[in-house]
Write a structure and sequence with these properties.
alpha/beta; Aspartate Aminotransferase, domain 1; Aspartate Aminotransferase, domain 2; four-stranded mixed sheet; 13 helices; 17 strands; 39% helix; globular
Amino acid sequence: MTTEEIMAGAELYLMNTYARQPLALMRGTGCRVYDPEGSEYIDFVSGVAVDVLGHCSGEVTEAIIAQAARLVHVSNLYHTEPQVQLAKILVEYSFADKVFFCNSGAEANETAIKLTRQYATQTHGADRYEIIAMENSFHGRTMAAITATGQARFHTGIGPLLPGIVHIPFNDVAAAKNAVTENTAGILLEPIQGEGGVVIAERKFLHEIRDLCDRSGSLLIFDEVQTGIGRTGHFFAYEHDGVIPDIMTLAKGLGGGVPVGACLAIEKVARAFSPGMHGCTLGGNPLVCSAARAVLNKLLEDGLLDRCREIGQYFEKKLYGLKERFGCIQEVRGRGLLLGLALSIEGTHIVDICRKQGVLINCTSGRVLRFMPPLTISQNDIDRLIEVLAGAFQKA
């Protein structure tokens, strides 16, 4: 099919839920993707921070093929080796003691909210149910996750929302202290608000929130769906500031392109779940766990975390160079290979110009250009992006 035929088919058969670019992608390799006509694009979106090893990574592809020929799915009524092996890696390299597998970040956050309330009810009583979340946050599209999302534009037309979730300004210690009550079960936040414009949680704020949770008996929940799996230069973003949560959610980069999510928790919290309280038919099946295991092994063994920090610093320096040249750039944000440019102008036009020049980027929150390339991105590719961006800003 041609690009036009694919786009026409999407218009005819698919629900209108995405503001898609006028582009169809047919294949990919490394940091490159190609349309049906063979045009090449450097990918600085990587499936929205998913393809951490690039497209069609050899290790992941081989793991998928081998497992698909052996066993794809049997449900969680039975034990499977790939699931246990993946959980072991996540536990050994994190604060957590136990893992629950699901299909997506939204499901992982649903699990975290449900687990938090279950633990609070068992530990403190039925009145301990409230979740404090952050303004400008994004946690997914299911009902609990969308309620926790602190952006009103995502709530239009789907009310009433889930009761018992309140929002406070991000990085506001005083607001957090005022919000904690005898009803507070947990505090949910992203170490970096990706969809909210690549806004970093301040170190002081994180430490104050940890202290608030400790003093009140509430749980601290980190949504690392976008920041986890090496994206910021550490395996998990919580490592930057030394603030350890009680629960953490993962997805996106975990599977390197296959749909898998996870909710990790410390032992005393994980014990709040017993058989029948929660589940996921497809969650953590042998196929996705084999792919995710290959992703983590590659990430941990090949020095990619060190490389992400180094190439991220190079990228950030180049973005600051652009800021010095163009007054429409207000701020450079982010860590590692989750970076953003906050603009004084609309960003969608810049995205369009870059696409026409063979570079794919993303705009979030209207005026923030977001860059989340594969962790294997090269300096040459970054230099090409900077060149294209400079031309785009000159036009703008």
